[in-house]
Structures are given as structure tokens and as C-alpha cells.
Amino acid sequence: MRILFIGDVVGDKGVSMIHHYLPKLKQTVRPQVTIVNGENAT
Predict the structure, then answer these.
(1) What is the pLDDT along the chain (42 residues), one digit of tens a residue?
(2) How many CA atoms lie within 13 A of 29 on its CB side?
(3) For position 39, what pLDDT does the model report?
(4) Euclidean distance between CA atoms 39 and 27, whole angstroms
(5) Phi, psi of 39 (to 5 degrees)
(6) Which InterPro entries match (predicted)?
(7) At CA 17, angle to CA 11 and CA 23, rounded to 5?
């Protein structure tokens, strides 16, 4: 199983980066599950 985990996305800049790069990253890595953790959120 391929899992893409991105941790501690911080603030508007972090969200903007995820919004910009995540589609391409998912296309390249082709994960079955993607988890993105906001800063210190559980």
C-alpha cells in the first residue's frame, strides 16, 4: 500500500504550497491514501 503523508502544514503559505504541488505529487507517486496534517492538529 502506498501512503503519502505530509505533516505540519503551517498557515496560508503552507496551504498554498499544498494546493499548488499536491496534484502533481499525487500524479507522480500515485498513493492509495493521502494524509495531510495541519500544524499541531490531531
Answers:
(1) 999 999 899 989 999 999 999 999 999 999 999 999 988 765
(2) 16
(3) 80
(4) 25
(5) -50, 120
(6) Metallo-depent_PP-like, YmdB-like
(7) 135
